[in-house]
Specification:
Three copies of one chain form a homotrimer. Chain A is 69% helix and 2% strand. Chain A is mainly alpha-helical and 458 residues long. Chain A has one domain: Ammonium transporter fold, CATH 1.10.3430.10. A three-stranded mixed β-sheet of chain A has the order 1-3-2. The longest helix of chain A is centred in the last third of the chain and has 30 residues. Chain A is globular and about 60 Å long. The interface between A and B is large, with 74 and 70 residues. Chains A, B, C: One of its GO terms (cellular component) is basolateral plasma membrane. Chains A, B, C: It is a multi-pass membrane protein. Chains A, B, C: This is Ammonium transporter Rh type B. Chains A, B, C: Keywords: Ammonia transport, Cell membrane, Glycoprotein, Membrane, Transmembrane, Transmembrane helix, Transport. Chains A, B, C: Belongs to the ammonium transporter (TC 2.A.49) family. Rh subfamily.
Chain lengths: 458, 458, 458
């Protein structure tokens, strides 16, 4: 069928149809189910006779905006490190996140804030939806360059649903604490993407090897992503925590953890680098592992020292992962992980979950005082001991890994549907597959791609 | 006179003189008229025995900073898509906005907050001044690359004054609601710029055609602008609304609208693109139309579904505009619209005004409860029915279009003054006209421009 | 020893060892001394029975995030203007700031918030640590491209300590006011760096002259830094001021000052430029001088006019400095100032200190009302007259200059230690010294650097 007019027409219509279909379906579900909550509805808010200063907006919106920046600027530009895939990295991040936040509003709404037949929305639903978009973008990082936009849309649809269910099981059924999402976001997103990438394994991917690296300025664009992720990560972890000391402590712990992971990343990168030189891949990614590793525990009594130690460990593990484990992952396990999400989100996410087990297990009434109610309500109410909370935390990690693996497998099978038009092995990491690329650039490119080629190669 | 030393000296002095003159005049007017308001003056604030938490600063400053980012980062980099005009796009945005916010503080101050012989300033005047700068930058987008900095400064001086008057007529005299400025900012800025561009029509502009496109990395710089505009647009529309549920609901509606316009933009761009490929111009611009289209109505009871539907429509109309209407606008109407502001701000702005008419006309005491007073005070106080409010809203649109057209015509005539030193047709979209450009770049450029040429061509 | 295997091994281990050593030492000191303060500790916060809205987090965290953005994005990208030093500019900014904020938390903690044997941390310590990182990055700007990462780490360790002591002398012992740090941050950072650069003077630096300029896109990356510094400077100056009118007024004054310095910078740049053209170096830097010059006085009754006048002056002085003084500084004073920090931070910092002297000397009970207590507590309590406060302010400037000069000299001597592996004169401003640089870039570069060369040249 390759090269046939029917195929060309199919390609032309696939993405538009999918986008329009999803958008129309979402809009209908919004019309039926989604309503303003008592903080965004004028009648409800004014009926309550609240002071405006009490509106949740003023406590969480600045954090939300930082999270929003991380999702769209941070993830988008971080993935723009590839020399010929910047349009797709930033553009598909934009598309996937815009879809995920609508769809996730529905899924999370049905599971978390559905009452009287309606989903109620406000700044908390915005934060949660952006968090879910973050998980989708982590998975995107694993398959970056090897999947078309139609495939990615389907992946997002599936992943958002499973993310919501996994999150519901952990937070609502198991009473697990995971404010910054070491488990629900990072572990889930990473292993979902990695398993999916395994199912989509391409033995001939080296045909696109020459496009898999960066160029000088693409690395600088990627650093925009890195730095915005780094500076706003304290807001990410603290966005959904309890008000007052909760948000404050969470931001502080994350800030310390990140600063330590930055130092250990520079140290390890120079140590394992050729001739003592630093590697941009490590700096762009592993320096962020400090944010991931305290996702679960930064709201707890981690202590400033604990935050530094955790970040130090995460930066170390992540850098070593890029250097030594990523090649093995491809050669032995047949997992092609474009952005190394296993090193940035996978291992640090699991470490973060285990750190949460440890810190939860050490919780005492003494250390938390009356604040115990906010961080560990079940312990404060006497329904659980610290030790059993720790066991639940550990169980949450296993549930997450299971959901991610099964979901990623399903997702991989789904994305292998032939009409989804995956890029051929020789055209991976190439913007021209999906974008009008400015002409002079095409002339420069190694092996430019003519329109006829596109059809015959597919 | 071309090429004469006198001309060269004139060029050298024109911009400095204009800048200095404007700055000195503004400073004198500030000395005479501008004073701290009761929230920024220590004596007034402490005399009132307020709680610090009540200071407007804490309710609006985070939103202000997001707006500030949009104006300087968003607009500046969005316009940097041109291959050889990045310095001018970012630099003149910087200059024009820095001028506009001072000058607008005076104009808006005289019209809105002048009492006891003084203008009183604080965070609200900062937000309003940045909004006005936004309108100026929209107009800048229509004439980008075809006007020199001296022309742009004069344009800004005129436009800020007319913006203030139009805004005063709408908000204060007609009682029109337009928090996010679908009319006062987007419609006004777009049609002011388009009419001005019409008056400055250049039949020989194709002499600069080769510089009118983007290159690979200039498109990525432009995406920095797009994404920052997109993520902070909820703050833009909500920055001046009433506190509490007002700001909260406005931000939420804008967030939904933008996510829908992103999906419809991707869908339409692929549908109308050659071979189903996406066009960066659409993604960079039309995806933002969702923010424009709810500028008037996002503080109202638009409902989440309404926001999605509006955004969907705006993204669709805007993308189709770029594909089909922009060429006609130039060939038939002789309007050369560099950034396509007609598609991003013009049509979505008018649609947004009409949507405001509709949603205002549907306002009921039931839907808004006691919040009606904040959104539609004249209806709440019984001075107007919802229907008559709708008619006023519609009238506001016509007033805006009139002010913009007349103002744009005047502006165009003003900018044709010969001593303002417009770039020649062959040197449009070229940074070297105004900037020292690093040498190695000149070598690469198509048809580099030597200093002698500059004089003889003018 | 050059080129020997021992030297190569040394280079390879130097940076890792330093990073790890510092990180381990810091972590141990954190374990012993650093504790949550009463706003981040759950037991302490809940024991106090506070309203969550009272938590300092909600008053200062948005400002902190803006400061954080300035430090990591602003400084990092501003210094990326060099054509071949973008990785180092952004990367070493990242490393130095991550180190400085930990180390500064300790130094400032011992001096400012040490009680009961512990340092107490929260959002205020985060802001102060970021401020100190800012001073370190200013000094980095003076020696950019001429120092390796190991040298920079040692510089940061020394500078952070001296910064803390100088700040303690000024704010705590002398009762000097300097919220935005015209003295403690800008003057100190600039002259520390300049004196250090003098000690490290390289007579043969012209061997690297060809890499000292920018290229087209590196100038655009630098503008990202400039614009983020510019938009968030109001938050920088207001982050540590008293709540309520204090923060509000400080932000407003800074906003005006910056807008005026932008206009005067454009005016002067065109005036002194060849053929009336603008110079990116001026726009990127001098336009920011308005933020520096009101660092001390923006919390005082500077008045909006005063802010405009100060900014105007600062932009003028700074631009003229770049044009006329920087060459003299190198040729006559043997100070090689890569980023021109003398023009952006040095002179405007001193001007800002003097402006603080003036505005403090004019303070009256009438003008400040009960707010005098917040701005000038010693005057309000009758311990000082406005005039004597002014004299203390002036004395603070001298103390700062002395600390900076002595500290910079010491730092310079320290950095000349031979094992610190400074780059050779011919390899300054070159990322390949420290980074794996993507291959295709190396081919393009003028005089690429092979691994063997590195060893033999050192």
């Amino acid at each position: 069928m390759a090269g046939s007019p029917r195929r060309a027409a199919g390609r032309r219509l696939l993405l538009p149809l999918l986008c329009l279909l999803v958008q129309v379906a979402t809009a209908i579900l919004f019309a039926v189910f989604v309503r303003y909550d008592h903080e965004t509805d004028p009648a409800l808010w004014h009926w309550g006779n609240h002071s405006n200063a009490d509106n949740e907006f003023y406590f969480r919106y600045p954090s939300f905006q930082d999270v929003h920046t991380m999702v769209f600027v941070g993830f988008g530009f971080l993935m723009a490190f590839l020399q010929r895939y910047g349009f797709s990295s930033v553009g598909f991040t934009f598309l996937l996140a815009a879809l995920a936040l609508q769809w996730s509003t529905l899924v999370q709404g049905f599971l978390h804030s559905f009452h009287d037949g309606h989903i109620h929305v406000g700044v908390e639903s915005m934060i949660n939806a952006d968090f879910c978009a973050g998980a989708v973008l982590i998975s995107f990082g694993a398959v970056l360059g090897k999947t078309g936009p139609a495939q990615l849309l389907l992946m997002a649809l599936l992943e958002v649903a499973l993310f919501g269910i996994n999150e519901f099981v952990l937070l609502s059924l198991l009473g697990v604490r995971d404010a910054g999402g070491s488990m629900t976001i990072h572990t889930f997103g990473a292993y979902f993407g990695l398993v999916l990438s395994r199912v989509l394994y391409r033995p001939q991917l080296e045909k696109s090897k020459h496009r898999q690296g960066s160029i000088y300025h693409s690395d600088l664009f990627a650093m925009i992503g890195t730095i915005f992720l780094w500076i706003f990560w304290p807001s990410f972890n603290s966005a959904p925590t309890t008000l007052g000391d909760g948000q404050h402590r969470t931001a502080l712990n994350t800030y310390y953890s990140l600063s330590a992971s930055t130092l250990s990343t520079f140290a390890l990168s120079a140590l394992v680098g050729g001739d003592g030189r630093l590697d941009m891949v490590h700096i762009q990614n592993a320096a962020l592992a400090g944010g991931v590793v305290v996702g679960t525990s930064s709201e707890m009594m981690l202590t400033p020292f604990g935050a530094l130690a955790a970040g130090f460990l995460a930066g170390t593990v992540s850098t070593l992962g890029y250097k030594f484990f990523t090649p093995v992952l491809e050669s032995k396990f047949k997992v092609q992980d474009t952005c190394g999400v296993h090193n940035l989100h996978g291992m640090p996410g699991v470490l973060g979950a285990l750190l949460g087990v440890l810190v939860a297990g050490l919780a005492t009434h003494e250390a938390y005082g009356d604040g115990l109610q906010s961080v560990f309500p079940l312990i404060a109410e006497g329904q659980r001991s610290a030790r059993s909370q720790a066991i639940y935390q550990l169980f949450g990690l296993f549930v997450t890994l299971m959901f991610a693996s099964v979901g990623g497998s399903l997702g991989g099978l789904l994305l292998r549907l032939p009409f989804l038009d995956a890029p051929p092995d020789s055209q991976c990491y190439e913007d021209q597959m999906y974008w009008e690329v400015p002409q002079e650039q095409e002339d420069e490119a190694q092996g430019p791609l003519r329109a006829e080629e596109l059809d015959t190669q597919a």
